[in-house]
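Form P-L/3: holo structure prediction, ligand AHG.
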Amino acid sequence: MSSYNITTLNDFIIQRQKEFTYARGELSTLLHHIGTAAKMVNTKIRRAGLVEILGRTGSVNIQGETQQKLDVYADEVFINALLSSGECCGVASEENQSEVIFTDAFGRDGKYVVCMDPLDGSSNIDVNVSVGSIFSIYRRVTPRGQKAAKEDFLQPGSRQVAAGYVIYGSSTMLVYTTGCGVNGFTLDPAMGEFCLSHPAIKTPVDGKIYSVNEGNYIKFPEGVKRYIKYCQERDTETSRPYTSRYIGSLVSDFHRNLLKGGIFLYPENESAPSGKLRLIYECNPISFIAEQAGGMATDGYDRILEVDPRTLHERSPFYVGSANMVKQVGGLILQYNGQEREREV
Ligand code: AHG
Ligand code: MN
Ligand code: MN
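OUTPUT (holo model):
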């Protein structure tokens, strides 16, 4: 007789809640709503080639990038799900210049704020390549009952209470952490449920994959150039040359490296002095997951999670993945590019 034992995302969230004596279920409710929103976005993405959804809205978001229709849809779905959870008092999102503050009594009473990239890698949608959603949850610092304020969102990543991503790939997965390890759930399309498929994810300390947009090589800091050359050199003892893999979708590139071992690099360059990726809703949540899986994440010098954010859409250079690889590129940056990163004001 075969045994059939499935743990759904919601079962898992509830089981974990019981492990914390004082947990009152607010975070569980919030995570549950994020899971529901992810399923809605997934349904839309899976039909992207069929419905009138491909293409651009014609409007431009805060980063000056053309918004895809699905960016806007995903943004709305997540924000509505968070509002209706009653546990969230505001959302910072890539698609909105300012934080979205929930002003009704229900929203004002929420204990958490969420920072998110509702659709990551969205330029890949038109060509049927994997995309993702990223989220990061903080306990608010302002009192409950009041409207959320800027300082609720501008907290260092080390204060995250939970973070995760959804990858809409050959299958759809939700991966998250609440600071007690990382767990991955695969969406069973027949059941319509995320089911625990990757419990207690640990990333290898050493990896053999490097992921970077090598087209920008000429513009990279010298230390990063040296590291890329190191990855490409022949050395049988360390299994080099390494494999190069770059999708151009942070969630997908990170997810592959998390499972297989590797490093993702998005350095600063001449035309983008802080790189491209955003600190609060891309680098921080991914860094929390990386560290919880035994990996590392830096801006080339410092631990990403200790950086004090100054603005919602601030960018940061980003090096994340297998600990020994991140340490090594950091060593070369220090050696060839000096002591400190200069942050943009
Ligand atoms: P988004 O679609 O949310 O703007 O993010 C795109 C990002 C990220 O997913 C990816 O790592 C990076 O852009 C790729 O940038 P390049 O095309 O410069 O390599
Ligand atoms: Mn993104
Ligand atoms: Mn995005």
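COMMENT: The first helix runs from residue 9 to 19.
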